[in-house]
Specification:
The structure holds two protein chains of two kinds. In chain A, 71% of the residues lie in helices and 0% in strands. Chain A is mainly alpha-helical. The two termini of chain A are 39 Å apart. By secondary structure, chain B is of the alpha/beta class. Chain B has 32 helices and 30 strands. In chain B, α7 links the parallel β9 (223-226) and β10. The chains are: A mainly alpha, B alpha/beta. Chains A and B meet through α2, α3 and α4 of A and β1, α1, α11, α12 and α15 of B.
Amino acid sequence: MPFAEALRAIHFPESFHQRDAARARLVREEFFGIQLILQARKARWHELPGAAKKARGKLIAKLESALPFSLTASQHSVIAEILTDLRAPPCA
Amino acid sequence: MNRLLQGDVGSGKTLVALEAMLHTVESGWQAALMAPTQILAEQHYLNFHRLLAPLGISVALRTSARSENTAMPLFDKDAPGIIVGTHALLYEGTNFQKLGLAVIDEQHKFGVLQRAKLIEQGDAPDVLVMTATPIPRTLHADALRRPRCLDPLRKTGQPRRNPDSRPRHGQAPRSRRLRPQATRQRPPGLHRLPLVEDSEKLSAKSAIAEFEKWKTLLEPHTVGLVHGRLKPEEKEAVMSRFRDGSIHALVATTVIEVGVDVPNANIMVVENAERFGLAQLHQLRGRIGRGEHKSFCVLLHDPKAEDTAKEKLLVLEKTSDGFEIAEADLRLRGPGDLVGTAQTGLPPLRLGDIFSDAGEMEFARESVRAVLAKDPRLHAAKIWRSAISSNAPSEPSPPRQVDSSKSCQPQAVPLEWDEMSLRKIILIVDDEKNTRDGLRDALEDHFEVYVAADIAGAMSVVETEKPDVVLTDLRLAGESGMDLAEKVLKLPKPPLCIMMTAYGSVDAAVEAMKRGVYDFVTKPVNIDRLEILIQRALRERDTRKENEELKQQASRRSGLESMIGQSGPMVEVFDTIKQVAPSRATVLIQGETGTGKELAAQAIHTLSPRAGKKFIAVHCKAFSAQLLESELFGHERGAFTGAFERRIGRFEQANGGTLFLDEIGEIDENTQVKLLRAIGERTFERVGGNQTLQADVRLVAATNRDLAKLVAEGKFRDDLYFRLNVVQITMPPLRSRKEDIPLMVQAFLKDSAKENSKPYRDMSPEAMACIINYDWPGNVRELRAAIEHAVVMSGTPKIGVRDLPASVREQTGLSLLNTPAAGALNLHQTETALILRALEESAGNRTEAAKRLGISRRTLHRRLKDLKTIRS
């Protein structure tokens, strides 16, 4: 449905079906705009230079050995995931 | 990195963040952690300091109270690897040296802009945002902006019991039922109030008044008080007494909401719970139940509180999963402004509903992602419109349930980019609404469909949407579909027209086809047949379009591309051609034989609007006077002996196109007269014919003779000369543009090798020098022939002087010395040519070559050395 028709139909609908169709058309346009802004922003973020942090993990190993408890599996997996991200340039 | 680290209260988010910060520090960067409150920042600082001091990592603290709190080391801008702070980190004086990671703790406590400001402090630092309860805005954006993932940090280091949370109506005294159990075990409790001082306006209770009340109630146990008006050291003193057990119960405001770790606290009473946000209540509740005892959280609320407030409390009773709570928060409070800064509340949407249209949002997300993947810079703006108006699932979807496992699943299947962009547009024009709607429903699955009831409506759609097919009824109330078809078919890029007609008016439809309508269908319309017809029509049109494009491409090749040259005279020629081509002006091309006059004429034709029509070339010198006349204008049967049938002349053949008359200086006077009339009045008769004919022809004439001189001598009509000489182009001889020769040689070498099925061979420097030195009386044509000769004759890896035609070799040799007016030559070139020739004839033997040149071997050696120096 063209934009002009949707505008007409949402103000002066001939049927409920037409009203709903017009609304759906306009909502889609609105959401499309929001998504464009959000995703374009995110794409911009990805274009930032950023830098890879390529430490070998000595400090983490020392810290973990000094802790009075050991980390859970899910903590380990989350840390591994974050470190993978930190090592990968640029902002990923 | 830009990550959200979501984990329940006490699941070890801070430890994960600390390891990320350590990794950053080890890589030579700084890491900053921004906490929402001073207490929490200090607590992080002390913990980090305790853990990292043995590792030799310096930790700094920066809060707004730093000047009052001398016990805390101040922010040291020289060396700290890790900087912990509050909002104070954002303001002046915090000069990060090399910020590589920004950790934001308890995301919901900061504004969007505050978070952005911290990130701006570094040179695109990585970002880790931590929270137990993602704020609605983030949760929503996240659900939409995958693959930014929520880390599954759900399990804690030690098993912990979730507090038994019960909303209770009414006032504090009713919660005293918990008192006996609590006092028996002597566990510390927390009593929380929303405001620190009396405020009539908000009808909130004063923590101080409440503190007095609870002190009496819990006698003989000791009760402490913490609120935001206390100085940091006073706060810390109370907290530390609470931690070590000397205070049994604590009355506090929200200052202790986040991060304060008191393992043995296991009862919490929250007054005016309806005033708190879900995330905040979840945070508060997280302060208890860290020890081994069962814990209780009592949420007291006003019985008159709004339903949403009560619902909020019920959510807390039902679940302790931070993610589920965040989802409920999103549902109850709205996502905030996704493109602005509000973190909760209804987004400023004009029409859409974030919940009931969730399917549409998913669709938009996927569509935009597909668009951006193909067109990141959004060049094809038109495609958005087509994507927006395309026929995708648009039924309003039911509100989403609070179910974290399904929260990120897309609910609509989006259109693929190709499908969107290639979807053909159909316009249906019919005055009967039922027919319009019926056809639309039937065709919508495969096409983008627009409808109109009359010609005016149809034309407006045609103008704005540029449909591929117009499907119109022959009879429109008071109007005729034929009129619409005629209007539409007159457009520069007309759509295909298909006529719908009732059984009785087939004749009219056939008539319509004669006028350019593609086809017709009879009513009632067989939808399957109609679809096949439309598809076929579109396919045929696409094929036709493709053919035209290919033709155009092919014709473009014989434009200026076929003329080689970068020299001044040639650039001038190109400019004139480009300027004159679009007009209808007659062009006279002058130049020696072989300079490319016909190529110039072709280029004029190719670059003109007549490019799609014929280019006819006539070499006037090739015909006798009578034959030329017949050749140009045609003849009738029996006009002269041998004229057995009517012949269509070149003028007629070239109608709409370009006629190129080469060697125009050779035509006799009689033909000149006829030609003059044909050019001036655009009329002529065939030889032996009476009928006056008309032809729209653009004339380009060429000659290698000096026409002005012929006019002066009376051999060429001056009026014809003036007619022809509207624009004059003079093709420069090759000898006056020797800098173009190497370029041409390369091109001709390639062409000749291909044409003669020979491998491509380069020209040796000696041969090239020879070619440049030659004066090319036959111009480009001669050069082309010479190169072809060399390509065919050469058997060595490089084409040498001996492969060139004898005429070229000889002139550049001794005969050069006899060429008096060789303006382009100089002594050095001549000497070079002679030396090269001598070397070649003596097969590279320098002694022999020196003998031939009449110089010593030593002199030859020196000259060759000079030659090499100059070349290099």
